[in-house]
Design brief:
Radius of gyration: 23 Å
Strand order of the largest sheet: 2-1-5-4-3
Strand content: 5-15%
Structural class: alpha+beta
Helix content: 40-55%
Shape: elongated
Order of helices and strands: HHEEHHEEEHHHHHHH
Number of strands: 5
CATH superfamily of the largest domain: GAF domain
CATH topology of the largest domain: Beta-Lactamase
Number of helices: 11
CATH class of the largest domain: Alpha Beta
Distance between the termini: 46 Å
CATH architecture of the largest domain: 2-Layer Sandwich
């Protein structure tokens, strides 16, 4: 690989990381490009939890069925995580040195993948995460390729810090703030407007019971909106207060409110919407409202996927 090709590939990965202000999207884009660049098969990225003693799965690309159909196989400890958290991995390791412990004992759905590289992600001397890249062939990477992997890990570390600090360079259309507004705040405002319209209709019909019920539900929704707006304002203020010399790493925080965590904990126990409503003394309609928000924030398509993601990220107790 020539120097021109080397810097061209790094520039392209850096561009992806800069364009994607959603952390999951940024990580997946960089992972996809890295896999393609080095002619590998698949990979995943772990990020360190705030306690610095565990990790959660933050992104993956082109997983074999043995892992994509069984996400629980990517949870828990493995050789790489243990070595990384115990300071046993400090730089990119050659791809033939470690046989992936998550795939080696499986007999189907692995696409014959086996050998993988492990690349630590650090920032200002602090552990940020770990990249695993997998191939079906034994390969020996040269110095240039290992250098690329170490540089990519640094770029990803910076991207993680930037997104956590909400470094949006102002309120432009690519801002994380706009992402929150589009996915969370605006749908809630539309829902609240619809409920207020229903409230007016019930008032005209002099249906006092329905009026009171809608007033309670609307009040709770307004409180949730105020909470989210307050968080957005605080993150924006924190962003402007961050000094350029600040190199500390900010660990990912929970994107869910206390009420949403209560709802998700009950969903995990197998409760239906009506049972959750009864447990929390709220309406079933409000429960649906919370679940929609939870799915959006965790980028989940189903309740099961949301619970699985929350467990992997440590948002719910095991």
């Amino acid at each position: 690989m020539t120097d021109i090709e080397y810097f061209s590939h790094l520039y392209e990965i850096a561009s992806h990381l800069n364009r994607e202000y959603s952390l999951p999207s940024a990580l997946r884009k960089s992972l996809e490009k890295t896999v393609e660049l080095l002619d590998l098969e698949t990979g995943w990225i772990w990020l360190v939890q705030g306690d610095r003693k565990s990790v959660y799965l933050a992104a993956s690309y082109n997983l074999p069925p043995a892992l994509s159909d069984h996400p629980e196989r990517l949870s828990g400890w493995c050789y790489c995580i243990q070595k990384y958290l115990s300071d046993g991995i400090s730089e990119a390791r050659n791809i033939s040195e470690i046989t992936c412990s998550r795939l080696k004992d499986l007999t189907s759905g692995t696409r014959d993948l086996k050998y993988h590289a492990t690349i630590p992600i650090t920032l200002a001397g602090q552990k940020v995460g770990l990249i695993n890249l997998v191939s079906r062939e034994t390969q020996q990477m040269g110095e240039k390729q290992l250098s690329i992997l170490n540089t990519i890990s640094e770029l990803i570390g910076i991207a993680v810090q930037r997104t956590r600090l909400q470094d949006s360079h102002g309120f432009d259309n690519d801002s994380p703030v706009y992402d929150v507004l589009d996915r969370v705040i605006l749908p809630r405002i539309k829902k609240l407007a619809s409920d207020v319209g229903d409230l007016q209709s019930y008032a005209e019909q002099k249906d006092l019971a329905s009026v009171l019920r809608h007033v309670r539900e609307s009040y709770e929704q307004v409180q949730e909106l105020l909470h989210h707006v307050t968080l957005i304002r605080k993150e924006s203020q924190d962003h402007h207060a961050v000094k350029s010399a600040d190199s500390s790493f900010h660990y990912p925080a929970s994107p869910l409110t206390a009420r949403e965590l209560e709802v998700l904990a009950l969903v995990r126990r197998g409760h239906t919407n009506s049972q959750v409503a009864e447990q929390l003394f709220i309406s079933e309609r409000t429960v649906k409202f919370h679940i929609t928000s939870i799915l959006s924030k965790l980028y989940a398509k189903t309740r099961t996927e949301a619970v699985d993601t929350a467990l992997k990220r440590g948002l719910l107790s095991p």
